[in-house]
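new request in #modeling-help
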Amino acid sequence: MLNIARRLKSADVLGINRRNAQYTLPHNARRLYPLVDNKARTKQLAMAMGIPVPELYGIIDYEHQRRNLHELLERYPDFVVKPARGSGGKGIVMITGRQGQLYRKVNGQVLSWDDLKHHVSNILAGMYSLGGQPDQALLEYHVLIDPVFQAISYQGVPDIRIVIFLGVPVMAMVRLPTRQSEGKANLHQGAIGAGIDIVTGITLDAVRKNQIVTEQPDTGFPVSGIQVPHWDTMLKTSARCHEMTGLGYQGADFVLDRDKGALLLEVNARPGLNIQIANQAGLHNRLKLVEQHQQSLKSVDDRVAFARQHFAAQ
Amino acid sequence: MNNRHLYVLTSLLILAGLALFSYKLLVLHFPLSPDSQVKIWDMEVRVSFLAKDRPIKVSLYIPRTSSNYALLDENLVSRGYGTRIRKVAGNRQVVWSIRKASGQQTLYYRATLQKLRSPDELAPAKPEPLQAGKSDLKGARLMAAMAVVDDIRARSVDTDMLVSELMMRLNAPKLNQNLDLLLGSAPTELTRARTAVDILQLAGLQARIAHGVQLSEFQRDLNVVHWLQVLQRDHWRPYDLATGEAGVSDDYYLIWHSNKSLIKMRGGKQLKATISVVLNKTAALYGILLQSKADMPALYKFSLHSLPVDKQATYHIMLLIPLGALLLVFLRNVIGIKTFGTFMPVLIALAFRETQLLWGLILFSLVIAAGLMVRLYLERLKLLLVPRLASVLIVVILLITALSIFSDNLGLERGLSIALFPMVIMTMTIERMSIVWEELGRKEAMQQGIGSLAVAALAYIVMINQQMNHLVFVFPEILLVVLALSLLLGRYSGYRLLELIRFRALLRGSS
Ligand SMILES: Nc1ncnc2c1ncn2[C@@H]1O[C@H](COP(=O)(O)OP(=O)(O)O)[C@@H](O)[C@H]1O
Ligand SMILES: [Mg+2]
């Protein structure tokens, strides 16, 4: 065990205690957390900075507004319902079509109007929010998958996670939904994650439940060697997230839409550490490097250039 | 961020905790383990007499901490009497008085004594000197006494020998002329003792008669025993009256020293005083506490032992929670075990104290499993969150009630203690578990559930430990150290044990 600890240390793997003690606690002011813990506010912030996001169809704050839900959704054939303060993909329902009073989920399951209303009231009551506080339900545009990812994701949209420290993108991965994750790209739910080379935007091998895999388990296509479209834009947008939220250490999640390109889905103030397994690389040395050059990394372009110079995949 | 600050703070806390701890341990001799015992005697002097409608005044010599016994506690039982404790010529005396009383009267003096580990531990630093050698011998008696002094001086080189020579002569079956004159006919032990004191004073020594009792396991109506004390180098050295040997038995306890008798009365009749003792073997702690109550009232006042006994039980439990919490911090942040709710396992562990571990685990799992089934069923009814939580709570209470009645009918007493489980905590556990079950699957839910139970069981084992219990209750300052440790763990940035397993995949790839 001690031996493993030593080897992990020399590979600069960041553990959760160190992440909290040296990065999130000192670099993320607590008053900034609400900006990212509430997806509605993050959306507002992003829009104010001209960063594209999935269009918001409506917000439901109160139980009685559920009645408007039906009306609101008359206009949209497919949409996504999610808790504003949710995390880990909990409480997200993606609807891809409707027949009268019945709604079809991505996996083909059918929800009745009652089921949907109940789901919304669970969201409002805080069932999916941190600490069970009352919450809001967001209705938003259902992102359409980019053809590049079609072969390697199962019934859902992959999302691209970029960890940003002091405005410098330090590590990236793409998370691919699987049958198990019900179309959501959350590793906890069973999605697989593949590292992305920061310099080129080309995918590496993937991990699933801490194990390395080379192909998508449901479709069987290889996951590595794929060029992620709009990579330059995404890298640049992620660097701008530093100005957007003010957080020192954060993870930005993007989705790629077939028509609209890279959209910012959410920002995380405590991004998970599995990204290191997906990239077969430790975060700690990269973070230390950024900290050392902090003074010279003012503009967005400088920071992106710095990332491209130092964080190429081996 | 500022680690120096933290280190200074924690070292201060640890220092303060350890300093207080070692003071209590090394100086006050608070026991480290709960079962060390000491001998404690309860001594009682019962004074009875007949009063006849007249003012009464009774004075009784009472003991104090001697060179080998500590007086821990004392009290008087005397309804209607005015009481006063005074010092007379180096002795302590209680004086009872009343304006008018009639009939049979009984007064009590009670004391608690503890044998000192090493003699002289608490003895008064300097014995008060006696008013020097004023003997009231006159005329022929003085001459006789001087002759005896000359005689014994001629045969001894030190005080020990002098006293032994003297006592040998005083106790001889056939007295010589001089002693015969001094003692008179049919001398009692006390007359001999008085004569011995007179002669020794004439020889230029400070001497006195000591009166006390011989402490035994259990004795009613104890006789007062007498011995001789001679001042030598600031120390009253005891001598046996019968043999004249230096030293008296270890269980002699001094009550007073003077020529007067134990008790005196004015105004009543048929005065009688009886002394009895009982030996109690008590927890060492009790003796020390009584002692510190006498010696250091402040320290005693600020200890938990000054609280009423029934309240103390609550603190026994409360003071254990920090230990459980520290264990929890360790298991979560250093080992990396996931639990439902931060402190849920500690609270469950507290409940286990009542049910015992095995029963606790069985009952807890039963209630959670049944509650979970109900909760998963309620999911179908599509209830709003708060009413649903309330419903689950009610179901939990019904389950607990049913289990109690059921196990009572089966004659399983343990089953009844299930009512002590924290019901709201159980409800929240069921709710959380059902969400994890639905969202992340059965496996994850079971894992976290078993993790919580394992942590609870460990916390229980720590908290049930008699030794731990004793330590935190007697030395609550240990909690300062516990606080310091949890502060330090708050800045622990090393890997968690389970992370090592999690990140192993990364190493395999790289090497
Ligand atoms: N608007 C959307 N269109 C399509 N898929 C979505 C949408 N919103 C979320 N998802 C899917 O759900 C996953 C989790 O969503 P996200 O907004 O990141 O919430 P969380 O904070 O719970 O992770 C995403 O990775 C994505 O796969
Ligand atoms: Mg997400």
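bot summary: Residues 139-257 of chain B form one domain.
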